[in-house]
Amino acid sequence: MQKSIPYKLSIRIEADGFSFVLTQNGKLLLKRQLWCNKNELVNKLVAELQLQNLSDKLFDQVEVIIHSPKAQLIPQEIYRQEDETHWLQLKHKDKQYISSDTIDIYGCYNIFATDLKLYNAIKAVLPPHTVFKHALTELITQPINSNTCMRVYQGNKFIDICVIKEGKLLLANTITIENDADAAYWIMNVIEQLNLTIKTDNIEIQSETSSSLRNILNELLP
Fold first, then answer.
1. Same domain as 100, residue 14
2. Could you tell me which InterPro entries the record lists for this protein (predicted)?
3. Biggest alpha carbon distance in the chain?
4. Could you tell me if 67 and 120 lie in one domain?
5. CB neighbours (10 Å) of residue 37?
6. N or C: fewer beta carbons within 10 Å in the chain?
7. In angstroms, rounded to a whole number, what is the distance separating the alpha carbons of residues 2 and 180?
8. Are residue 101 and residue 124 in the same domain, yes or no?
9. Is 193 exposed, middle or buried (0-12, 13-18, 19+ CB in 10 A)?
């Protein structure tokens, strides 16, 4: 019997919309991006998955990447799993599904919260092996070349940013922005606060939308 070719579905959830990518053996088959307000997000996502016939497909791998400021990096030395629920319920009193990512390379855990209604809706239409991951975890753990010091993911009205220097994670954070100039301001602020000697070649920018951020930084940095 011929072995089926594996599908991989990757869904990226932001506060005001979502995107998903379907690949087969690394080949792009489908990419969709929709913006909506947070009250519509759950229904829109489920409807779009069903419209694209993705809710009953046999996936080899499914990951859901959550962009949310509801996260906290904790060093492994002081991490206790029983503290996760207590800590996030103190900080976020609305109904959340709480989980954590292990980041062994930098000796820490990333504890994060996913809206419970969103979590349950996704689990209802996607396979049991669906993996939820926080966007900062993905950003931090991507392979890094020797030239990169700062990595930025620019979304709609926010940036995720991490700084890695000499094999150490110095910063990982989500910052709300209004526009590209605002994003550049916060990047320059991080550079100043961490006293980094950095050029534009040392900054990796990822974005699913058109952006002038790189051009602005080219004017501000050597």
1. yes
2. DUF3822
3. 60
4. yes
5. 10
6. N
7. 49
8. yes
9. exposed
- CATH number where 185 lies: 3.30.420.260
Q: Do 114 and 155 share a structural domain? A: no
Token output for 107: 């000796």
Q: Which of 141, 175, 194 is the last residue of a domain?
A: 141
Q: Which residue reads 């993996």 in tokens?
A: 131
Q: State the DSSP H helix or E strand holding residue 164, giving kind and residue range, or none if neither.
A: strand 158-165
User: Which CATH number covers residue 91?
Assistant: 3.30.420.250
The two tokens of residue 181 are: 């100039």
Give the residue carrying structure tokens 């991989």: 8
Number of structural domains found in the chain = 2
Reference 155, options 14, 29, 4; nearest CA is 14
Task: Residue 149: give the domain boundaries.
Answer: 142-220
Q: What is the pLDDT along the chain (222 residues), one digit of tens a residue?
A: 344 557 899 999 987 888 889 998 888 988 988 888 888 888 998 898 888 888 767 788 999 999 988 888 989 998 887 777 776 666 666 678 888 899 999 999 998 888 888 999 998 888 888 999 999 999 999 887 777 789 999 988 899 999 998 888 999 999 999 999 999 999 999 999 999 988 888 899 998 776 799 999 999 997
- Dist CA 71 CA 94 (whole Å): 14
pTM of the model: 0.84
**In a 3-state reduction of DSSP, which class is residue 107?**
coil
Do 27 and 114 fall into the same domain? yes
Together in a domain, 77 and 2 = yes
